[in-house]
Amino acid sequence: MDAIKSLRVVLIHDWLTGMRGGEKVLEHLCRRWPSAPLYTLIHKRGSCSRTIEDRPIVTSLLNKLPRVESYYRYTLPLMPWAVGWRLPACDLVFSSSHCVAKGVTVPAGALHLCYCHTPMRYAWHMQDSYFHDRGWGGPKKWLAKKVLARLREWDRRTAAGVTHFIANSEVVRQRIRDCYERDAVVIHPPADTNFYCPADVPREDYYLILSAFAPYKRLDLAIDACKKLGRKLVIIGSGQDEKKLRRFADDKIQFLGWQPDEVLRDHLRRCQALLFPGEEDFGIVPVEAQACGTPVIAFGRGGATETVIHGTTGLWFDEQTVDCLAAAIEQLECRRDTFDPRRLQTHALRFRAERFDEELFAFVANVMGLKKKMAA
To answer: At 371, is the pLDDT very low, low, confident or very high (cuts 50, 70, 90)?
Structure first.
């Protein structure tokens, strides 16, 4: 793969405000091309791993707004304009995109590969999840519809600038077809199955959520289901809905904020099950849970249908209602002994990081025409 490492590469990522699934994909790109410049709308210094931070990072004018990391989502209408960088000459532009990164203009002669976590969910398939409960009516609602329509038009138009799309799941592959009328190859994201692994520790009597507090994550369902059943729930994460979610909680709901990876792993090893109530594009956290031998209770749509085997490594629930999730929790409790930690770990190994590197960089070599050069 020396020929791949020698490519002149520019990396694009929407924003750098924390280490989530998209940033874990970006880490692998940064390791492969350690000197590649990274362009991003907003960078909260110190929020990502050293692998990402230790390189030239170019931000947009949005990054000059005071404390923008606390309200950057509200700058969405400005983001298509903000990605208008003049990129340096290169062989390959590689964008990691769930919002506007894929809309960058590439230099003449360069190929553009986009690892698409999802088409812009705010403007397409999850509008209601983001805006329905915001109390927007009248002029606000009218303006939001106008802005989102323009964003969709821009998003569809700029898809033509992508040479090849890579989808993180079959679900996202179908969204790319629906939104852009383009096909994509599916390469599932990497899970660190060396770090996330079982340990000889006792299970404790609580359920677990690891998540950003975004509306579409539906953490409210998990809180209300655990309240209904009188179960303890530990929630690790933070985000825009934190105040609202804390108001729902009772004394059996514990909020821990963001925690180091070692703390996440410890909880994944000790909880009864991971609750995953939102419709995700893929979702690395359920894979990490299974790698620790922990079953997952997930909404049976989206990426969870590709990562969780119903009845074997976890359970799907059919409707995003409190009653349906509560029933799934009770079902798991009745058949807890049927979820073999070793079988869960074996399943999770299908998504190991080494597999991701092999598939992704073989694809890069193929589209860049490097396979014959490497064989010569």
So the answer is: very low
| Cα–Cα nearest to 356, from 116, 25, 112 | 25
Alpha helices in the chain (DSSP H): 2-5, 21-32, 50-53, 79-82, 127-131, 138-158, 170-180, 219-229, 242-248, 261-270, 284-291, 304-307, 322-334, 341-348, 353-367, 371-375
Q: What is the mean pLDDT of the chain?
A: 92
* Paired tokens of 325: 């999730």
**What is the three-class DSSP state of 38?**
strand
Q: Residue 5 has what pLDDT?
A: 85
Which of 354, 351, 348 lies closest to 189, judged by CA? 351
Q: And the tokens for 226? A: 């655990």
Give residue 215's pLDDT band: very low, low, confident or very high (50, 70, 90). confident
Nearest to 69 by CA among 57, 77, 59: 59
For residues 38 and 86, membership in a common domain is answered with yes
Q: Which pLDDT score is estimated for 143?
A: 75
The tokens describing 59, both together, are: 């931000």
Is the pLDDT at 126 greater than 80? The verdict is no
Q: How many CB atoms lie within 10 A of CB 163?
A: 14
CATH number of the domain bearing residue 359: 3.40.50.2000
pTM above 0.85, yes or no: yes
Could you list the residue range(s) of the whole structural domain that residue 306 is in? Answer: 207-350
56, 38 Cβ separation under 8 angstroms: yes
Predicted confidence band of residue 193 (pLDDT cuts 50, 70, 90)? very high
Q: How far apart are CA 169 and CA 307, in angstroms?
A: 10
Our count of domains for the chain comes to 2
Residue 332 carries which side chain, given as an amino acid letter? L
| C-alpha atoms less than 13 angstroms from C-alpha of 68 in its C-beta half-sphere | 20
What is d(CA 330, CA 273) in angstroms, rounded to the nearest whole number? 12
Q: Are 227 and 167 within one domain?
A: no
In-domain check, residue 202 = no
Instruction: Give tens-digit pLDDT for 18-29.
Output: 888 899 999 999
